[in-house]
Amino acid sequence: MNAIPENHPILVEARKFAELLSRSEEVIRFRLAEEQVEKSESVQNSIAAIKRKQKEWVHAKHYKKMEYAKLLEKELDQLNQYLDEMPIVCEFRQRQVEVNDLLQTIQQVLADTISKKIEVETGGPVRSGCGSGGPCNCS
């Protein structure tokens, strides 16, 4: 498979579009929310506590300490719920959904536009061979 050259006009335009997208309101709001989550001591402490409990849970399961593992599962559920209900985390997740929706919409626009421009065979016999009708006698 041939690699597309870096200076291919489509790639040049894609980079321009990516730059435009990175300056969109949705992406800017997402990055700000992400930065707040990363800088929040309470969020980072909660994440660290969850990771510690997860390791404990894995060890408990490995050593077949099922009662202890169930206790850890309850604690993990509580820690995750606490994290999920933090306003800063809710904001981050909302911004994440907005950016994802934007990207999915862009992807759908591209797919719809391309499928309108490219004729796609639907049904009928499947063609095979080179299509030249030459020595292999294909069509």
Give a brief description.
By secondary structure, this protein is mainly α.
Description:
The protein has 139 residues and is mainly α. It has a domain at 41-90. It has helices at 9-22, 25-39, 41-62, 66-84, 87-117. The radius of gyration is 26 Å and the shape is elongated. The two termini are 25 Å apart. The model has no long low-confidence stretch (mean pLDDT 89).
| Large-scale geometry | elongated
Structural class: mainly alpha
Largest sheet: none
Average predicted confidence as pLDDT = 89
Low-pLDDT ranges: none
Q: How many distinct helices?
A: 5
Order of helix and strand elements from N to C terminus = HHHHH
Distance between the termini: 25 Å
Determine the strand fraction and express it as a percent band: under 5%
- Specify Rg, calculated over alpha carbons: 26 Å
Helix content: over 70%
Number of strands: 0
List the helices and strands and how they pair.
Blueprint: H1 9-22, H2 25-39, H3 41-62, H4 66-84, H5 87-117
Helix pairs in contact: 2-5, 3-4
Please tag this protein with its features:
139 residues; 5 helices; mainly alpha
